[in-house]
Amino acid sequence: MTDGAGGTAPHGTAPPGQTPGARRRMPHARRREQLLRVALEEFGARGYHLTQMEHVAAAAEVSKALLYQHFASKEELFGEVTESIVAELTGRLNAAVLAEHGSAEGIRAMIRVLFDYATEEPAAWALLVRHIDKPEVGLELRELRDRLGAAFAALLLRRRRADPKLSRAALEVNERRARLLVPLMYGSMLSMVSWWLEHPDTPRERAEQMAGEFIWLGLDRLRTGERLPKLDG
Question: Of the chain's two ends, which shows fewer C-beta atoms within 10 Å, N or C?
C-alpha cells in the first residue's frame, strides 16, 4: 500500500485520512439489498413472529442502529421482503400461464413454476408457505394468495367460458364453484411442493405428475357432475 509521500504504508495500517480498523462504507443501495437478502433468510428460518431486528442485524454483521436507518420497523422490513417475493413469483406464474393455451397445460405450467421457485429460492418458499394463510403479518402475501386464486379460477373457467352451449346462469354456477375449489387447489399444490422438498429421493417429474393429476382428474370428475354420495340419515 502506498502512503501519501509515495512510500509504502506498514502492513495493517490504514491509508492517510482513514481511521485504523474502520471498514469502508457500503453504498446505500448495496447495503439495503444485502439487508433484504439477510432478512429473507431470517424470516424464512424463524418466521415473522420469532424474528427480531437484532437477529437480522447480527446475521448481516451490522449494528441494529444501521438496520433502523434503512427500515423503520420489523413490519416495514417484512413488507419489503414479501413484496419482492410476490413480484418475482407472480411474474413467473403469469409468464408461464400466458404461454399456454389450454387449462391442463396452464395447470402444468403453474406446478412447474412452483417447483422451480421452491428449488431455487428455498428461504422465500419457506416464508411463503409459513405465512400465506396468515395475512395479518403482511398485506403483500394476502395479495399473492388472491392472485393465485384468480389465476386458478381463470384456468378452471377457461374451457367452460368457450362453450357456446352454456347459458349465463350455468356460467355463474361454474364461477361460484370455481371460487370454492381455488383454496383446495393452491393449498394442495403448496403442500405437494413442500412435501417433495422434504423427500428428495422422490423424482421431481413424478411429484409434478402426481400434483397435476390430483388437481386435473379431480376437477374433471367434478365438471362431469360426479359427487360424493350423501350419508344416510
Answer: C
